[in-house]
Amino acid sequence: MTTKANVPVIDVPYGHVIGNEKWRGSEIAQRLQGKIRLIFEDGLGLVDFHLSNRTCILYISEADLVAGDEFKRKLVRFRNASSLRGIVIVEKTPISDQYFLAVQKLVMLELGMVLLHVANQGEASQLITQLVREQSKDHNSNPFLRKQRSQLAEPSVFRTVQQIPGVGKTKALLLLQQFGSIHRLCNASVNELEQVVGQTVAQQIHSFLCS
Fold this sequence. Notes:
The protein is α/β, with parallel strands linked by helices. It has helices at 27-32, 62-67, 70-81, 97-110, 121-137, 143-151, 155-162, 169-179, 182-186, 190-197, 199-210, and strands at residues 2-4, 7-9, 16-20, 37-41, 49-50, 55-60, 85-91, 114-118.
């Protein structure tokens, strides 16, 4: 393990997730157990979960949003210090909703990172499980398997795709049928998106996810 600033570079075993020790005993950890292989480590710095050697998750809870700007400093430090692909998961609740637009602007427009929102840690665990499974299956490019997987998408993933500007239930279903996961959707080109939802919505999706 090597360290760059406060973001150590972790070697993640295939099919595993490495979680920050602070999450041991949490609802996320309890719900992930039995679904994926979860290992806890100290010294992960700013990162909450490493999904692979290149992808990690930074989790912003309702309490983080309400408490003030410390989470913003955490995200900026991560972006300045790391070449990892950071996915930011934010708890969007009736209490934290008033802060969400500002967080969305910071994460997506200013820092150029992927933002996904959940209602609680239970939904977050479903989302993490989906992301891990899809990353593991990226080794298999069989299109028939991709279509099978899209039919098994977690409800929280479907709801998350629906929240993208210009995307409702129908387009969300079409996107998941085509790409199978948020991970692949984030990496899709505008041309690939256009084939599914048309030019205008494709541009909106690409700007929202990939700016």
